[in-house]
Each structure stands twice: as C-alpha cells, then as structure tokens.
Amino acid sequence: TLVVDVSDSGRQIPDTLFGIFFEEINHAGTGGLWEELVNNRGFEAGGTRVPSSIAPWTVVGKEPAIFLETELSSCFEHNKVALKIDVQCDKCPSDGVGVSNPGFWGMNIVEGKKYKVVFFVKSKGALEMTVSFRETEGGRILASSNIIASASEVSNWKRMETTLEADASSSDSSLYLTTTKKGVIWLDQVSAMPVDTYKGHGFRSDLVNMLIDLKPAFLRFPGGCFIEGQRLRNAFRWKNSVGPWEQRPGHFGDVWSYWTDDGFGYFEGLQLAEDIGARPLWVFNSGISHTEEIDTKDITPFVQESLDGIEFARGAASSKWGSLRASMGHPDPFDLKYVAVGNEDCQKKNYQGNYLAFYKAIKAAYPDIQIVSNCDASSKPLNHPADIYDYHTYPKEYETMFNNADVFDKTPRNGPKAFVSEYALIGEQAKQGTLLGAVSEAGFLIGLERNSDHVIMASYAPLFVNANDRKWNPDAIVFSSNQVYGTPSYWVQFMFRESNGATLLKSQLQTPHPNSVAASAIICKNSQTYLKIKVANVGKSPINLKISLKGIESSEATKATKTVLTSADASDGNSFANPTKIVPKRNPHTSAGKEINDILPPVSFTVFDLLI
Ligand code: AHR
Predict the structure, then answer these.
(1) If you take atom 2 of ligand 1, which residue's CA is the nearest one?
(2) Which of 30, 318, 404, 465 is the most exposed place for a label (fewest CB within 10 A)?
C-alpha cells in the first residue's frame, strides 16, 4: 500500500535535479552528435609528424598512377600535416584517382539532402577535381560536383567550398576527392557536413531530439576520463578546441583510444547546452591525468586556463576570451554557472592542493559560480570548501543499484550539495542495456527524489554510444550512421523528466518487499496540475498495489493514465532490429479515485498520472 498525502504542501524538488552528462566516449561526439562526416579531416591522426596516419582515408587508384605522402606543409600553424597527392597517370582511369574517406563506419547520405564540402587545396598547375559521395560498396555515385581552378588561383593554399545535393541514398557512403589530370595536389582540412544540422550548429538532429525529449536541466561535459587523459598531453584542453575548426589541432583521446579533430569543442558544448535548454556544467582538467600529476606549486597555468575558459563562456564580447566567443558567432555570454574541478581525482596526491588553488581563484573572480569537488561527502564531511560534490556509482548487482536509493538518507545537510554525476548498473546484468538495469536505476532515482533536499543534480553515464565503437556498456542512447534508439535506462530517465521543479509529496509505502519496491509521488505543473506516482518493482514477482490518496475527495481525481516500462524477460533490451521493444506504454487507467488498485508486473517501472 502506498499512502500519498495530497493535502501535504510538500517540498520543491530542485529544478536542476535531472540532467545529462555528455562525454567524448564511444565516438559520442566525433562520429556522432557532431555531424562532421569526414574522419581525420586534417590527416593529423598520427600526430603532427610525418608520416602521419591518414586512416581511414584510402587511396583511389594504384601506384604508379598515384602516390600519397604526408608532409608538414599545411598553411595551418597548429596542424601542419597535409596530404600530397602525386598523380602520374597520363591517361587516368575515367572515374579518377585520388582519395576517399568512409567517415565513421560509413557516411549516411540521404536523397534530396544537401551537404557542404569544404577543403583546402594547393596544386602545381590548374586544378580539375571531382568531389563526390559514392556508396562504399560498389561505388554508386550519390552526389557529385566538379571543382576547377586556374594554376594561379591554387599555386598557394586556397579554401574551396561546394554544396552537393544527393540524388540517391545510402547509409554506407564515402567522400571521394578525385582527378583525371596528371599533376601534384596538396589537400588539408577536408570537411563534409549536412546543411541542415540542428539549428545550423553542427549537431545531428535525431540525436539532439533524443536529448531534448529528456528535458535535461543541465549538461555536464565533456568528460569523464576524457578530460583527464591517460597522459596529460592527451587530456582535453579547451583552448585547443575553439576558434575556426580548420585551425584546431585535434588530439588523440588516449583513455577511449581514438583521434578527435575537436570539431565538438568547448564552444560547441556550451552551444549544445543552450540549444537544448540546459544549464552548462563544464568539467576541466585539475592538473591530473590517469598517470601524472602537476604539483600544486606549479598549478597556476592550469588555474589561469580555467579562468580564461570561464571568461570565454561568459565574459563580455569586448574581453580577451569573450571576443573569441563572439567571433565564433555568440556575442552574448553563455549561462555558465557550474564548473567541476577534475574528474574522479579525489584520491590523487595533489588533488586537494590543486583544487583549492582553482577554488580560491574562481571564487575571487566569479563568486556566483558553483564549484564541484571530486571528493565524496556523502558519508564524511569534506576538509575543503565546495558548493557541490561529485558522487559516482556503477554497481554490478541490480540489488545494490536499487538499494543505493538510501545512500544519502543519513548525509548531514549542512555541507555541500550532492551531484550524482555518473550512475548506471553495469556488468552482466546490464549488458548493453537491460530492463533489469533500468528498473534498478528507477529505484535509485526515486531515492534521489526523496533526498533532493541534498542531491541537487543527477546524470546517467555514458549518454551515447556509436554501436561501432562500444568502449563502455551500457549507454543511454545507441546510434549508427542513420539509426538511433534509447536503451531501457534512457526511458527511465524519460519517465523522470517531469520531476525537475515539481513538488514532492509525503508518501508512505507499506510493503513486505522494501528491497525491491520503491515509490514516490510528485505534483507537476505544466499546462495542467497533476499528481504523478512512480513505482519501481525490481522483484521477480508481480505485486498487488493499492494507492490510497489522503486529503482528496473521491470525485476529485478524475482522469488517470498508467505508463509502464516492462517486458516478459528482464534481461531484454532494445536493438536496431527492435528499437522499441522496451519503451513506456501509456494506457488510460479506470480505477482513479481516492484509491487505485493495480498489479505491478515483475521487473517494471510504472507511472500513474492523475489530473487533480
Ligand atoms: O562514464 C564512463 C567513465 O566512467 C567516465 O569517463 C569516468 O568518469 C568514469 O570512470
């Protein structure tokens, strides 16, 4: 029996409670949310040295008709590698020789859509090139455009731009840059993007819409381990990720083991937050990687970098770093109010010293910024000042995940607030996203709602996975070049999306199964006021549930709906073949009144919505 006191004035849940955490992991951004189709657009993936790794570019044609070589001859100061294409054929094959790029496991080219292709080129002699999208298998041409320039126009580096409109579709295509003319061509910074990205900001719309549907209150970004690096030289550093895309050096993210051109950089993270209506929460490197630590006495440059980053986000357009933001198309400040010093670094020798240096400098310059410490204060007080502390939990047993609901029950309320910035069931029971994992997380989130006088933010991790690069399982959103689906964990977050800013009512659950059933009741105010009751049953048996509404006349609760996330098999998940196997199913519910009687299926998450 769940007794809900509807006459209770309740307590407001922070409007920041449920948000999302975007990390560059699993090709989430590069080859994912960031809709750059070209993989390794600057031929830099082997680092700024030659020979560099041009993979996944491949040669079109064979020696001796064509020779490829990487050279340090680019016009771009921070990414010197360029590709030299030496075309030796007097009579070249009619469909040309050159290079092709399959993108990230195949480019998705859609009939009728337009694609902007930009590249930098230099040539000995006049230039005659064809830019095309071709199906990777078989070479069917989907879109094509010719580029012609006189010798004098391209004797030095020149930016070329063309828009291709596809007259056929394939989700496994490549970009081709080819020629039938003998001569030498240098290429660098080759980009291909659909013209219709989300708000024209470069994001893949189908993936952005999945985020918007969660109504996230905040966006934590860009990591995670990504901001730490195994080695400091491979950590994400914001200054290398801003300004014109073609001038960004890119870097090898050595924790998740892939190259990124950093097209999705610091600016794009801030822009994404704004576009989806979420508050940005920027995580920066604390002078600590997985294997190295900067001594606190030497931390000043890192501190300055964080201050500059804040100025970039919210400084006046006339300020040094604010003017760079303005030049990128955003003269108004971004609404940056939260920063986190490092990720999972609390146990590192220099963390506390480094943290304090960041804390003091940021508070002095920006007193309103809320600073997140990596040190867990859920069971003992911190020995340093912080507004918020990080809490990460990745249990492998669903019972542990579910019962983590009470982890903050006893935390003293006089310290910093908690940010559950990463949570998920992982391992055998969670696989690539199971119902069992999701329902155990629902139980945990009900506990967070109950403790939301202390826990002010929570986000699942990781958010995205490109199915071709599963570095971490499970994830909330799975995609390929042309498909996307939410795992059951995604749908649980979806079912909590009305909690931000809602009123939590007093409710009492009387059950012989306290370790497998959890419930909460909130009042939501959108266009209408309604009571939302959520019940998670992670047990293997059905449960007879009686909801008794106190303080309401039986006629007051008029219309009810019931939304259920369940499946016959708790180890089920969604897939590209069956993307909606486990999604919330909504039905009218007839027994609304002072009392609701229902049967909760085994391993299920049920939401009752009652207009009151
Ligand atoms: O979410 C995946 C990883 O888990 C994050 O990068 C890190 O913070 C945690 O260890």
Answers:
(1) 462
(2) 318
Supply the pLDDT for residue 612: 79
- Domain 20-34+198-495: which topology? TIM Barrel (3.20.20)
Q: For residue 401, which of 377, 425, 370 has the smallest C-alpha distance? A: 425
Atom number in ligand 1 closest to CA 422: 1
Q: With a cut of 80, say whether residue 197 has pLDDT above it.
A: yes
Q: How far, in Å, from the CA of 424 to the mean position of ligand 1?
A: 11
Q: How confident is the model at residue 554 (pLDDT cuts 50, 70, 90)?
A: low
- Identify the CATH class of 58-194: mainly beta
Answer whether 537's CB lies under 8 Å from 570's CB. Answer: no
CA-based max dimension of the chain: 90
CA of 279: how far to CAs of 57, 282, 335, in Å?
A: 38, 10, 7
**225 C-alpha to center of ligand 1: Å?**
6
What is the atom index within ligand 1 of the atom nearest the CA of 223? 6
Secondary-structure percent of the chain, ordered helix, strand, coil, rounded to 5: 15, 35, 50
Mutational pocket test of ligand 1: of 420, 472, 473, 489, the residue with most ligand atoms within 8 Å of the beta carbon: 472
Question: So where are the chain's domains?
Answer: 2-11+503-611, 20-34+198-495, 58-194
**46-55 pLDDT tens trace:** 888 899 999 9
Mean pLDDT of 492-516: 96
Q: 224: CA distance to ligand 1 center in Å?
A: 5
CA of 232 to the centre of ligand 1 (A): 17
Which amino acids bring their CB within 6 angstroms of ligand 1? 23, 25, 223-225, 343-344, 422, 461-462, 472
The CA-based angle 206-210-211, given to 5 degrees, is 120
Query: Which ligand 1 atom sits closest to the C-alpha of 421?
Result: 8
Which CATH fold topology does 2-11+503-611 show? Answer: Immunoglobulin-like (2.60.40)
Structure confidence by residue, pLDDT tens digits, 89-122 = 999 999 999 999 999 999 999 999 999 999 999 9
